[in-house]
From TrEMBL, chains A, B, C:
It comes from Robertmurraya kyonggiensis. Residues 14-287 form the NADP-dependent oxidoreductase domain. One of its GO terms (cellular component) is cytosol. Belongs to the aldo/keto reductase family. Aldo/keto reductase 2 subfamily. Pfam families: Aldo_ket_red. It comes from the Bacteria. Keywords: NADP, Oxidoreductase. GO terms for molecular function: oxidoreductase activity. This is Aldo/keto reductase family oxidoreductase. CDD domains: AKR_BsYcsN_EcYdhF-like.
């Protein structure tokens, strides 16, 4: 599989596996080991976590699988996130869901992720959400310390606007390596608000969360989803596939920003279908048919 | 007439003649030669085209006039555009109106413009609309090749936001020389969304399309147009003119961004009236009376 | 009191006294001298004016107090503003409220401020509002001349967006030292539109006007204000105070952008309460409880 070079030392697989719903998949440890191995066989080497996924449980589930087969660790890149504090029985001191990007919290959260994941380092740590009260000097101190200690190799952000990205960057002694944002046929905002242009300008490849629009195109009950589904199927007819998710991934892969979709499925056949999207060659006109179906208006 | 220096080697006349509606004017070739000569006599040396104007026909109409009197070519700057694919009997392979800024399309479109215009080069080629799927590396390759071959002297964009402008610029080995955007007493968006500020910051003089608001102020049926017309006439009374279009041009010319209005008329008396606007000296208070009439609210 | 360093030579007190409503306070000259001295005793050394405050009268009222006790001048930093032309019996030639940032007006306005304030210089002159017709070259010429003449030491802006700030900066031979914008628990726009991030990126500490939301939280008649008041009181219970204004100031002071609130009160007890906010130590969770009450939605 194509690799996307994020820095001199770091590359991600073009398709990324996301563990957001790992706890819902009800996998036994050995089954998760198998799923990871199947991903690696497909060329998916990058795995996306967050401290809070699965009510703060998913990192530990993944960590148990790694402990069962430690040789897997060197074959993968692990991404995790910090900065959101959930209302949770796991965190009784949180009285309201909020963000915390203090030096203290970033370091504690990262160290906790290492413990849960049963690993010595994560490849990339992301700030999960832009924190309007973020002190960029504290973030810079936390990142620098974690990097010096070898606990985190590289840093990025998630759901940041261009100005938030640039502001934080200006305080860091190293570049942010990615911005994980929502991108799909049904969610064009990041194309329209300058986020993806900013990625292109900064030569930062974005990760795409919810790349198949959370499933709403498959059922397609609302008008917009109906339009998109119809356009996907029309384009699919020319391209020789009826698989909606494959077409939605192909639409993202067509774009020059080197979008890296985060596949959120625990079923290997769906993951395989996503990977198959890499062989689809959309044309410019195909891409626009889907764009126009999504916006609901012709281009100007 | 005042010239606006865009680069060391390139200047535009402050007022520009636009050929968008050339096919509607029903001019015989010799009449078009006369119109061009009258423009040149007035000091208008810059002529604005696009591949798609007149259903892909207008460049060729202009080209025939140039062929009748080849000595005109050296007296003018020709601007044309590419990147939109119209639904058109001229382009039966287009199934939906869309944008295409691939290397292949830019080069083919520019070469086709040269053939239609019966000239060896165009002075400036613009990307007509921001393409959300634009690959800036392909654009850079196309521009560089066209420049090396002498087919296009300089490059610019049209309807680009600041972030789109900066993104593309970051891939080019030479600066973009202009951004042609909609600016008029009735269309203040480019003042309000940072586009004109960005032009000032980058020292890029913008071209203004639809500079007299497409004629809707003359009839003034809607409330906003009625307010604007009233304010223009009030200001005109102090300035000694009742010509609405002259006042609308003067309002643009007042602005420090060196806005270059694209005059879209085929009638020499209307073009002359536009040029006369250069001698009008609005005050700051005049300018604001018209601004406030357009926004419909007092300044803060 | 904490000082905020704006340049190598210029520092403001963290809390600033604002003279916007000076004419409403009906102070005798000697009473104003006393108020100024009490501010200075509290550590408030920075005083915020504008040419237009009090229908163009407030600078002169303040100037009379300075004339009564000239030794005060060296103990304070004076900020004033220019660029708005009010409809006013004091300015009969203004036919409509508008902005004017011409070289001529900036210089005349600044010189008039010096005369009214009975001082040889102001520490900082701000452009009061972004002027869509601003000629940045004229502003640069005016600023440069005023600085060379020693009439104004430093320059800044007010209510500028990031792109307006950057554009003007690009024409100036020295940095803008502040951006005075509206920030309060009830006015989050400057957090949400990139303004405060831009201040952090440019290392420019913003001044906050209307930092206690113009008083509407005290009465709290609308839904949003009711929510904010409730959250402030809940947080206040944990922090040991029921003073709403102190809590609103503390919320601003928590933020890492080094926001400098402009206290608009003529009552020394309210000023003292504002200064007391400096000793309150909010937590991240407190800050977010108030943020969420203001937006009316949970964080994402």
């Amino acid at each position: 599989m194509e690799k996307i070079k994020l820095t001199e030392e770091l590359s991600f697989s073009r398709m990324i596996h996301g563990l957001w719903r790992l706890n819902d998949w009800n996998l036994k440890d050995q089954e998760l080991v198998m799923l990871i191995e199947e991903c690696l066989d497909l060329g998916i080497t990058t795995f996306d976590h967050a401290d809070i996924y699965g009510n703060y449980q998913n990192e530990a589930i993944f960590g148990k699988a790694l402990a069962l087969k430690p040789s897997l660790r060197d074959k993968m890149e692990i991404v995790t996130k910090c900065g959101i504090k959930l209302l949770s029985n796991q965190r009784p001191d949180h009285e309201v869901k909020h963000y915390d990007t203090s030096k203290d919290h970033i370091i504690k959260s990262a160290e906790n992720s290492l413990k849960n994941l049963q690993t010595d380092y994560v490849d990339v740590l992301l700030i999960h959400r832009p924190d309007p009260a973020m002190d960029p000097e504290e973030v810079a101190e936390a990142f620098t310390l974690l990097k010096e200690q070898g606990k985190v190799k590289h840093f990025g952000v998630s759901n940041f606007t261009p100005s938030q990205f640039d502001m934080l960057s200006s305080y860091l002694p190293f570049p942010l390596v990615t911005n994980q944002v929502e991108i799909s046929v049904s969610h064009l905002e990041t194309f329209q608000d300058g986020t993806i242009e900013h990625c292109l300008q900064k030569r930062v490849a974005p990760m795409a969360w919810s790349p198949v629009a959370g499933g709403k195109i498959f059922n397609a009950t609302d008008e917009k989803s109906v339009r998109i589904k119809k356009a996907l199927l029309e384009v699919g007819e020319e391209l020789g596939t009826k698989e909606l998710d494959k077409l939605m991934y192909a639409w993202l892969l067509y774009h020059p920003a080197k979008i890296m979709p985060v596949i959120g499925s625990g079923k290997i056949e769906r993951i395989r279908s996503a990977v198959d999207a890499l062989s689809i060659k959309m044309t410019c006109q195909h891409w626009y048919k889907i764009w126009i179906a999504s916006t609901g208006v012709d281009v100007a």
